[in-house]
Design brief:
By secondary structure, the chain is of the alpha/beta class. Helices cover 52% and strands 18% of the residues. The chain has 12 helices and 7 strands. It has helices at residues 3-19, 21-41, 45-56, 62-75, 83-97, 111-119, 133-145, 160-163, 167-170, 188-197, 212-216, 218-226; strands spanning 101-105, 125-130, 153-157, 178-181, 206-209, 230-239, 242-254. Helix 3 packs across helix 4, helix 4 packs antiparallel against helix 6 (111-119) and helix 10 runs parallel beside helix 12 (218-226). The radius of gyration is 20 Å and the shape is globular.
Length: 258
C-alpha cells in the first residue's frame, strides 16, 4: 500500500478509534492483558481474584467479599463480573420476589451467586450451575468463605442443557421461582425453553437475563416478547468500569403455559 493511500485512510481509522475507544479498552483488558497474565501467573483471572479476596476480605461477610471483588476488578484486573450497578438491581428483585427456590445458570466466580444468596428469604434455596470445573472450584470456595452452606447454596458442575432435565429428579427442584441466566447469551433461549418443557417455571416465576444488550441475546428477547407467555421489562445499565458500553438485564414474568 502506498503512503498516499495509507494517509487517505488515516482519518477513518482515527474516527473509528475515537468512536469505539471504550470497546478497544475492553478488548485490551479482557483479552490481551488477561491472556498475558494467565500465561505469566499460570492462574486464571478468577483464581487470582480469589487469592486477593483471601487476603483482603472478611470471611463470613458476603457484602465485604463482594466489595473486595469490585475493588479488585476496578483497580487490579477487570473481572467481567456483574458489578455493583447490576448487583443492586438483582438484589432488589430477589428481595422483592422472595423466591423459595432460585436457579442460576452461569456461576462464574460466584459474585452473582452471593448477591442472590444474601437476598433470599429465610429457608430459601439456590442452585447454581457452572459448566467449567476449574471455575466452579473457585466459586465453591468463595461461596463457602462467605458463610453459605450446601443447604442454602448448592453448586452443580455441568452443562446447563444436561442439568436442567435432571433438576427435578436428581436435585429435588420441583419449581424455580426465580431464574438468573448469566452464562452464554446464545444459550438463553434454548435453556428457557428447556425450563418450560420440564415444567420448572410456575406461573408468576421471574426470569432474569444478564448481557441481553451487550454482547446481546436478540433471539431470546424476540421469543420472550412474541410468545405471549411473558411480561417483559428491560433494566438499562452499563458494563462495570465501562458505563459508556450500554447493557441491560431483562426481567421476564412467566404467565404460565397458556
Amino acid at each position: 500500500m502506498s503512503p498516499a493511500i495509507a494517509l487517505a485512510f488515516l482519518p477513518l481509522v482515527v474516527t473509528l478509534l475515537v468512536r469505539y475507544r471504550h470497546y478497544f479498552r475492553l478488548l485490551v483488558r479482557t483479552v490481551l492483558l488477561r491472556s498475558l497474565r494467565n500465561c505469566l501467573s499460570g492462574m486464571r483471572i478468577e483464581e487470582r481474584a480469589f487469592s486477593y479476596v483471601l487476603t483482603h476480605a472478611l470471611p463470613g461477610d458476603p457484602g465485604h467479599i463482594l466489595t473486595t471483588l469490585d475493588h479488585w476488578s476496578s483497580h487490579c484486573e477487570y473481572l467481567s463480573h456483574m458489578g455493583p450497578a447490576k448487583g443492586q438491581i438483582l438484589m432488589w428483585l430477589v428481595e422483592e420476589k422472595a423466591p423459595a427456590c432460585a436457579l442460576e445458570l452461569g456461576t462464574y466466580c460466584g459474585y452473582s451467586t452471593l448477591l442472590i444468596a444474601r437476598a433470599l428469604p429465610p429457608g430459601g434455596r439456590l442452585l447454581t450451575v457452572e459448566r467449567d470445573p476449574r471455575t466452579a472450584a473457585v466459586a465453591e470456595k468463595l461461596i463457602r468463605l462467605a458463610g453459605f452452606d450446601e443447604r442454602t447454596v448448592e453448586l452443580i458442575v455441568g452443562r446447563s442443557e444436561e442439568v436442567i432435565p435432571r433438576l427435578r429428579t436428581q436435585y429435588q427442584m420441583t419449581r424455580a421461582d426465580l431464574v438468573l441466566l448469566a452464562h452464554r447469551p446464545r444459550c438463553y433461549l434454548r435453556d428457557l425453553q428447556l425450563l418450560e418443557a420440564h415444567a420448572l417455571l410456575p406461573a408468576g416465576a421471574t426470569v432474569l437475563a444478564d448481557h441481553v444488550l451487550f454482547p446481546g441475546a436478540p433471539r431470546f428477547l424476540q421469543y420472550a416478547k412474541s410468545c405471549g407467555r411473558y411480561r417483559c421489562r428491560l433494566h438499562h445499565t452499563g458494563l462495570p468500569d465501562f458505563p459508556a458500553i450500554k447493557d441491560g438485564i431483562a426481567q421476564l414474568t412467566y404467565a404460565g403455559p397458556g
